[in-house]
Amino acid sequence: MSILVLAPLVRALTTALLVVSASVAAEALGPFWGALIAAMPVSTGPAYVFLAMRHGPDFIAASALASFVANASTGIFLIVYARLAPRISAWPALGCAVLAWLAASLALHGFAWTPLRGVVTNLLVYGVGCALPVAAVGRSARDPDGRRPMQRRWFELPIRAAAVAVFVAAVVALSAAIGPAATGMAAVFPISLISLIVVVRPRLGAAAVAVLAANALRAMIGFGLMLLVLACTAKPLGTAPALIIALAVFLCWSACLLLWRHAGQRRAASTRQ
User: Within 13 Å, how many C-alpha atoms sit on residue 65's CB side?
Assistant: First the structure.
């Protein structure tokens, strides 16, 4: 089989496997775990691996910096969705959140960015987002119990997996034409979060998905740190070591969130006693 055929096939299969696994686990384990899994780089990670196969460290560093800046747009997407999901119907809430991401990304794309400016921008967005009370998001929903038993239709997960796989392939294929900055912006379009919301909301309800989006803000900080590390290390260390270190940073942040949640649960249990 030609490598030109094999590479897109492997890309689609690996991405689809990651997406399907994340979907099933997110539905089974609840909003906190769903948020943690939703923040995993299931589309951005494979996109950068395949970009690294086609481009040098300079291109990867520039793209990762653009992705890090665009991560602030994802924070705005999550803030808008978390506030609107309990108040309006499913598709208008999602549409407003996507429009907010597009508007923010277009605004950010017009500036000359440095890592420090990207850090300040992300701190502002995620600082505001994380200050929002997660519990209040869930209480304001029309369906506060947040769970609606519903059998998954057979085509939902394959469609979601196919959408992410096609997106990753398109980003890699267009990268040479659109340049590193636009590639970086496109690579972090929240296709995984969008598809997760579309699949999970009918099953769990508006309240649970709004809480998931609010929790995802904390998880996406680690996603941004991963991109920042990749942007800063790709040129001095090379793309392969930079990708490994960036993934390790993301995993460490996720582990810290788990420890923080466990400590909170222990404090709550001791208070009840």
Answer: 22
Kindly list the distances between the CA atom of residue 164 and the CA atoms of 19, 40, 105, 187, 241, in Å, as whole numbers in the listed order: 8, 13, 20, 11, 25
Q: How many CA atoms lie within 13 A of 238 on its CB side?
A: 3
What contacts 256, CB < 8 A, 6 or more positions away? none
Q: What is the pTM of this model?
A: 0.79
CB 84 within 8 A of CB 96: yes
So where are the chain's domains? Answer: 3-110+132-147+157-272
For residue 220, pLDDT over 90 is answered with: yes
Query: Does the CA dihedral 81-186-164-53 come out positive or negative?
Result: negative
How many C-alpha atoms does 152 have within 13 Å on its Cβ side? 18
